[in-house]
Specification:
Number of domains: 3
Strand order of the largest sheet: 2-1-3-4-5
CATH superfamily of the largest domain: tm_1862 like domain
CATH architecture of the largest domain: Alpha-Beta Horseshoe
Number of strands: 16
Radius of gyration: 21 Å
CATH topology of the largest domain: pyruvate-formate lyase- activating enzyme
Largest sheet: 5 strands, parallel
Amino acid sequence: MVFKIITLGCKLNFAESSALGKVLLERGHRRAKPGEEADLCIVNTCSVTDTADHKDRQAIHRIKRENPNARVIVTGCYARLKPQEIAAMVEVDHVIPKREDCFVHAWSKDDRTRCFLKVQDGCDYFCSYCTIPLARGRSRNPRIEEVVAQAREALQSGAKEIVLTGVNIGDFGKSTGEHFIDLLRALDDLGEMEYRIRISSCEPNLLTDEIIDFVAQSRHFAPHFHIPLQSGNNEMLAIMRRRYTRELFKERVEHILRVMPNAFIGVDCMVGVRGETEERWEDYRQFVESLPVSQLHVFTYSERANTRMLKMDLVVIPQQERERRSRILHAISEQKTQAFYSSHRGEQAVVLWESKKTADSLMSGFTENYIKVSAPYDKSKTNTFEQITI
């Protein structure tokens, strides 16, 4: 068969789609060429918000329109949460929800330089606004030796950077009795190959001082952290059933910068959550503005069926106000990112050049602390590390 795989949502989904593609190729099927009609189309969906659901449906409509004779299979989180809704779509032939009783190994390469390596799946936290535990199941992971084998395979295939991905990666070891810090130590010792590793989003209550200190002195881990805050007001954190206070979050940020002054720190922020009164929002905004972080990843809250929050007696924030608050945090994020970039101008750094060539004949890459830089395109430098002056 000729097949296409369309992936929406997070890097974890992209890793899983890549693993599925490899299986199909190994069985003798062929990926469709650009513009070629496929016999089979697989849509791997996201369902983190109502907007994500809408994009899933748009993708399904579009793929059937472009491949009218193909069989369409829908999988992913949307398929897990709303299989009947998807099955009612005339374009869909089969709905295959994800299994939550096993761990499926997966890794994918982006632009031939960066590998997204799945190390964990599922979540046991059940935050009041979130459906991910319903879509992904309970927290589970492979053994460290299995992850190491996957990492070696990715590096041997040409990847130079590995990004550890999962739903709640700091919870690694829940199903094997191992620990996340032990996984990091093993991945820091893969041999004499030239590579670096980034840790994707890690809960602040799981990002221990031991982990931070290890990254600071490791050979291969980048000084780059992504930490979900979601709200900077403690009352809202309690309503959201988060497992930390803003004081703990601030301690984590300060510890990172104490041992890695050049570290990039990205922060997940949600706005417009039920219960986020004007007073709580203003407290949240002021806290975020005071944090010495590099970037905010801002989400606008949308009500999700079967979440605890819908059963709570809380003030509902109008959609227009949610969007206004989102714009405010986006503006704060832009200021912080520009300040972070400016503070490193003129410094030495190591960039990993990517293969894409822009319309104005430039190439780009990221430094170890996630500063995106550009230079005149040089094909010989693609997928290589180079020490530069920013």
